[in-house]
Design goal:
mainly alpha
Length: 100
């Protein structure tokens, strides 16, 4: 359930920043922090002691997903160097939605 909160932070960040690269770059850092915080809470409270690979599964997956959020932040920051016109942005946005 806590991992769902990480996704909610991402959706709220995307809505607030209107999917603009500079704003999304800033939104990725709280998401990465929340991802790491969920793991700290899970490890501190021993939420899943029954798992055969506890706590390594939590640690490995948390490092992996936190790294993905941070790489995304870096890529969004890199995308701010090339500013799209409103028309280009709308086309790219529609293509993204069509792909999903």
């Amino acid at each position: 359930m806590m991992f769902f909160g990480v996704l909610v932070i991402g959706v709220v960040g995307a809505i607030i920043t209107r999917l603009r690269p500079k704003g999304m770059a800033h939104a990725m850092y709280p998401i990465a922090f929340a991802q790491a915080l969920v793991a700290v809470i899970a490890l501190a409270t021993n939420l899943d002691l029954a798992g055969p690979s506890w706590p390594w599964d939590v640690l490995v997956l948390t490092v992996f997903f936190t790294a993905l959020w941070l790489v995304s932040a870096r890529l969004f920051r890199k995308a701010t160097r090339h500013r799209l016109s409103d028309t280009e942005f709308k086309i790219a946005f529609r293509l993204t939605l069509a792909w999903i």
